[in-house]
Design goal:
There is one protein chain. The chain is mostly helical. The chain has 2 domains: 183 residues, Growth Hormone, Chain: A (Up-down Bundle); 201 residues, MFS general substrate transporter like domains (Growth Hormone, Chain: A). Helix 7 runs antiparallel to helix 12 and helix 12 runs parallel beside helix 14. The two termini are 32 Å apart. Keywords: Membrane, Transmembrane, Transmembrane helix.
Length: 411
């Protein structure tokens, strides 16, 4: 999963979107995130535990980390290929339909190696789907409607997270069928989106050479304010995904659940709570930061709130503590992502390179997702439990909050 921070800026002129485009964007993004959350967050963890229960933490960290590399590589590659073709729908359709056989292979895998290979394939095809889908907004939506489009895309995360958690928990006892369900959800969403949206072929755009991309990356990070925004985002995302990726194992081995409640059912309670809190704080945080014209205040405060949330299950292993964590962490992360995205757009080094530099920022989203599973597995293995993982993640969130202070160009 390559977390997307914003609708890309600086895109080609777009005609007015069709009447059904924004609802279809919501459906397509919801389907995508439901697979990411339901498979990676529940079904994959259960499958790894069944194959090798003794080493589930290290194995899961290895699989998550290696597959995240595939996600990070295939996302820009697929984006460049769709740029060259001047089309998005064929890539959305191809990636979405390919999700079904990829989930079939994952369903049949019975060793850690085969699970790793199958999930890497799943990440590859899903990032073909995601890269093309992300480009739809700048291609087809005019600047005057970008706010509504951003909301449609952004709400896919909490909606998809809730759907993924509920469906994943429902198929916890039969995860092999669950894989096929999620593959079918994405395939149907791809068929629906491409069948119901009209696409105008755009002029093909040649991809930027690798050397030029590296030079652009270095150039953007030489800017003082942008560099600190990049560092702050990377630190917070690292802490967030170090914990969220191991949620099922945390509930199995750390949290004292109510009598009769299974960890998979607990995920189905916690994830919708987090999603609702995230949706509320995304809207409210963005509105308040606009009204008060204070970005750094909201970004720093939400990062510190995330640290407080992460400290709650470190202090208490109770179910009540996890419920509090789910709500507070959702409020913190939703507000952070909404306002930090606005902050970043205000500290871009050059307006004419906005799209390129937003791509650089996405490295702060994707890179920590690669590192997070390895960091988490090492912390848990060395400390012998999950308390240290929550504390390390909280420390990273505090560091992310402090990274906002040196930014000079935004209040």
């Amino acid at each position: 999963m390559a977390l997307s921070s914003a609708v890309p800026a600086g895109a080609s002129p777009a005609a007015a979107p069709g009447r059904g485009l924004l609802p279809l964007l919501l459906v397509a993004n919801t389907a995508m995130y439901s697979l990411y959350i339901g498979v990676a967050g529940i079904l994959l963890a259960l499958q790894v535990e069944q194959v090798d229960p003794a080493d589930k933490v290290s194995n899961f960290g290895l699989i998550a980390g290696v597959s995240a590399v595939f996600a990070t590589v295939f996302n820009p590659v697929a984006g460049a290929l769709s740029d060259r073709s001047g089309r998005r729908n064929p890539w959305i359709l191809g990636g979405g339909l390919a999700a079904l056989p990829a989930m079939l292979l994952l369903r049949l895998a019975d060793t850690i190696l085969l699970i790793t290979l199958a999930w890497c394939l799943g990440q590859a095809v899903m990032n073909v789907y995601q890269a093309a889908l992300t480009s739809v907004v700048p291609d087809r939506v005019p600047m005057t409607a970008r706010g509504k489009a951003s909301a449609a895309v952004g709400l896919g995360l909490p909606f998809g997270s809730a759907l993924g958690a509920l469906a994943g928990a429902a198929f916890a006892e039969d995860y092999r069928t669950g894989y096929l369900l999620f593959g079918a959800i994405v395939a149907v969403a791809a068929l629906l989106f491409t069948g119901c949206t009209r696409e105008r072929r755009l002029p093909a755009r040649a991809p930027l050479p690798v050397r030029a991309q590296l030079a652009a990356f270095a150039s953007a990070l030489r800017d003082h304010d942008f560099r600190w925004a990049f560092i702050g985002r990377a630190l917070l995302v690292l802490g967030y995904f170090a914990v969220s990726g191991y949620q099922l194992y945390v509930l199995q081995d750390h949290t004292v659940l109510p009598a009769g409640m299974k960890p998979e059912a607990a995920v189905a309670v916690l994830t919708p709570l987090t999603s609702v809190a995230m949706a509320v704080s995304t809207v409210l945080g963005g509105w308040l930061s606009d009204r008060l014209d204070r970005r750094k205040l909201f970004v720093g405060a939400s990062a510190l709130l995330s640290a407080v949330a992460l400290a709650i299950p470190a202090v208490s292993a109770s179910w009540s503590a996890m419920l509090a964590f789910a709500v507070v962490n959702g409020l913190a992360f939703g507000c952070y992502m909404a306002v930090d995205t606005a902050l970043v757009t205000m500290v871009l080094p050059r307006a004419e390179d906005a799209a390129r530099d937003m791509g650089v920022l996405n490295v702060a989203n994707a890179g920590p997702q690669i590192v997070a599973p390895f960091v988490a597995s090492v912390v848990v293995s060395v400390s012998g439990g999950y308390t240290a993982l929550f504390l390390v993640a909280a420390a990273l969130a505090v560091a992310g909050a402090l990274a906002v202070r040196p930014i000079r160009g935004v209040r």
